[in-house]
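To the structural biology subgroup,

Please find below the input and predicted structure for DNA 3'-5' helicase, which we are adding to the shared reference set this quarter. The sequence is reproduced verbatim from the submission form. If anyone notices a discrepancy with their own records, reply to this email rather than editing the shared folder directly, so we keep one authoritative version.
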Amino acid sequence: MRVHLDIGQCICRRRETSRVFMAPEQAVSTEGRQLMQKPPLPIALVAVDEAHCIHEWGDDFRRTFKELGSLRAVLSLDIPFMALTATATTAVLKTVKTTLHMDEPVIVKGCLDRPNIHLQLKSIKRTKEDLQPLVQHIVSAESVEDIKKHLVYAKTKKMCMDLWEVIRGQCSGSKKKAVRAFHADISTKAKTEILEGFRSGAIRIVVSTIAFGMGIDIPDVHGVVVYHVPTTIGQLYQEIGRAGRDGEQATATIFHGKADLSKAEEDVKAFVQTTGCLREELLKHLGQDLEEPPENCCTTEEDPNNNGLFIFLQQANPEHADQTRPRAPNRKQRQDTKRGDELKAKLREMRDSWFEERPELQLFGPVAVLADEVINTLVSKCRGIHNINDLKKIKGVQAKYAAEIIGAFDQFFPECPPRRVAVARRQRGAASARRALQDITNVE
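Predicted structure (tokenized):
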């Protein structure tokens, strides 16, 4: 564990160091405690990221998570602790507060709904049959680049390899290399290669255990397949939440078998057995209510549309393209008023006002209400945002401020009159024809 002494020496040499990252095992070791007890620079804050692991892993898999609270004994009493997680169920919250000795902590909650992810629940039949839509998509793709990125989660390393063989075994040529398996036992070199390949697009399908996920943010994952539901609702949310982080339409398909429920917590059983809205059930067990179901919300097992084509929401059979293609909707667009700087100033003014109403956030500053990078994203994408469902695709926006933000958009970038897509296309076609005729007349 010499790494801690190296960290201390590094901090001494580089006085501008602002953050030090440590694994729980490093932090609670003798060397780690010594570093925190006599730090080269003052410690302002101890942040525990992925804090749900204290609850889910602290009793067996990585017991050091449960020991993090003991660091209080070697730190000054005025050093605050912060716990961060995307899945704080009531049980997780209780465990984290107890373990980290948090007395009446300030709790900041964001909206957990991911409206761009379509949820689908299916019973496990036969592996090859269950995964056939994904395999068919891979096989029919013209090139590797045309294969949409997918994560397939398995419960065990053996199951991971079995699923990988089922998918890869039906591929040929370069497509075989685009399907990889990822679990704890593969080499560090292979893990790095798969992660970098999946991020760059050279690898399109990753079949994995939970080893692939924590701390990994790859935005353009089109779909997640959870093969056998995990035991906790938090882990389920973590897995399906790795789809569609770019805000585009994505899919999460959750397969469950009879044996899954025997070991699952009660909230997972309730989710699997519900005949109602999957999204509403999921959010309920995460302590939130569903405000407004998105257009592509979910498909339960009772739904007659749950026909197996679960992964590609917009994939139509070419032989029946006319029947399956929906009528073009009105295309909305906001006017290009060039008032982006004014909108940014308005959003910051609104943020300051909201911050003044939240005294519990004084320690963190206005960015705790709405981060600067989120404001920049809102300004850059505002012309494509027309309602609350559109706004939900932007990460970092709290639902209670959505209406005011839309109002600011309307003020600086008003809506254009709607135009039928078909009419617009005809007009573009006519314009192209006129340009072609004009070009012909210029030929000498």
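Summary notes: The first strand starts at residue 46 and ends at 48. The CA atoms of residues 97 and 120 lie 34 Å apart.

Regards,
Lab coordination
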